[in-house]
Write a structure and sequence with these properties.
The chain is α/β, with parallel strands linked by helices. It has 4 domains: 132 residues, no CATH class; 143 residues, 3-Layer(aba) Sandwich (Rossmann fold); 142 residues, no CATH class; 211 residues, Rossmann fold (3-Layer(aba) Sandwich). The protein is 26% helix and 21% strand. Strand 25 and strand 26 form a beta hairpin.
Amino acid sequence: MIGAIGFTFPAVLAALALLPLIWWLLRLIPPRPQTELFPPLRILARLVKKEETPAKSPWWLTALRLGLTALVILALARPILNPQSELASGDGPLLILIDNDWSAAPDWDDRVRTAQALIAQAGDQGRPVALAPTVAGPAATVQLTDAGAAADMLGAIQPIAGRAERDATLARLLAATETADAPPVLAMIDTGLAEPDGEALNDRLAGAGLSGLLRFTATDRDLVAITAADNRTDGFALSLARTPAAAETASVALYDSRERLLGRGETTFEAGAAETIITFDIPFELRNDIATARIDDAPHAGAAFLLDENNRRRRVALLTGLAGDEAQPLLSPLFYISRALAPFADLIEPRTGDLSVDVPEMIDQGPAMIVMADIGVLPAAAADRIDEWLAAGGTLVRFAGPRLAASAQDDPYLPVTLRAGERALGGALSWSEPQAVAAFAAESPFAGLEAPRDVTVTRQILAQPDADLADRTWASLADGTPLVTGVRRGEGAIVLFHVTAEATWSNLPISGTFVDMLRRITDFARNTEPGQAPVTAAAESTAALPPLRILRADGTLAIPPAHVRPLDAEADARPGFENPAGLYGTPEGFVARNVLARDETLTAFAPAPPGLDVAEQSLVAEDEADLSGWLFLAAFVLLIADTLAVLWINGRLSFGTAPRRRAPASAAIALAAGLVVIFGA
């Protein structure tokens, strides 16, 4: 190798030593004498001139021929630009594991070049090759094949906005070499980022029986990714993570569903910090329009974060029929509700205290949920707006109390029919001791929450037993009586807590479970606007969600390809080949799936299998280029120039006005044939 150029047949270069001999021979052999026609007058006209016969070739013709000879010798030595050294030595099969996950997109061309170089060298050595990407379908098969077929397979692999599964990929590669005669060599073309299967991968590598382990990876990767989005009370916040070699500053832009810019901000990582948070101080209305957050100048899927209804902050309107005592706020009907909802909702307070005025004004602001604490029969003006709001998808949450108990028979905004009066400890409809909360049923919206052991109920409003009561009961007490009931109304829902919103009937409002229950109800509520079409939440559907848009590995949204399948509840939480990052559902309701989990960090991948050394190399940054064709072309151009020069010296070409004999047709035919051969090759 000489610098960035190597020669396939360097022994041919020894012929360059013959150039001095060729130069000596060319100097001794003169050009062919010029032939003149017989016309006597022309001969007589030249008699006055001294006749000269050249004794040697012109210096420029000699230099031209020496250059032509040198070019042919160099071309026969087959010079290679950016030649690759032997990347994988050995006699056994070559196994190539290549990462094609979200972080492989920025330097994907280098990964392909590295794999191509490995495959080409294995082909020259006559070794079989097995190639497997780390983001592949569950039915993907791997088999040993020749270099040509492996190169074709490599051309079909593309990076995907999913997570690498190196251990499963290695298992498929090893299964393909069970019948091989010699131990295989494994070449890992990885992204340098760790995955959760790292321990299992090391164990499998240690017992794989490899004759060598090569690792090709990019050093000092510059990656910044978004791991979470929070629609907070004080603004919209994004959590960012970076690799150690990434820049300390990052610029992030927010876009709506039509790719219109809503905001832009810049954040700086603290020295040595791997995580940071950037907050955007933008209006509530714009925050709920954010569909995508993207890091500028970062062409990978980790730099794009998709949002759905779960990231939209809900508006919640609060109403009560009782005035709170400012000197004793803990007795206020809305004190515990507002404290529970404030971290994840924007609260709307009544302005006048007149329900016929406050309810329409609140609905005009498009709340997702209205909470009523012990309110009896609504005025007609308020009831009409409530009906429209429920039909558009609003969620009405009500709490019991003396007023609701007194007017329950005439109230149309209840999920179940209530008995008149209250059931109190020591009363006519009493129980002997306070009742605890029973475990939440699997079909309840509160399923998965742990029933509070320290919560008891001393007073409640009972529901009339009927055929629908069991289906409408979301939570119950230990004796089976309902604690929370709910029913769909239009596109919305009505939910009733059969206890008060303050801790007079039960200590539920001062428990952590109360916050979790309100959070669950708020999650399936949707912000509404007057007159807007009903919205159906895709997250409520138990059916598989069809792919709506998928995220490419470069961070752009695209139409889902054929291999993407619907997303069901049992799908792996980590995006992969069949369910890459993207949007799943319908335009009316969808869920977002991103490549990184909340609070995930970008840690380095450092394979260390026991008893096996790892040889690390950099990715191949440039392709090999065979220069012999260009040298042959240059030699042929010089050959044409030499031929034309000889014809001119011998008088076969004329550049003046007097015509001379034309060059033989055979010379022109030879030149044309040579050009066809050179440019057609």
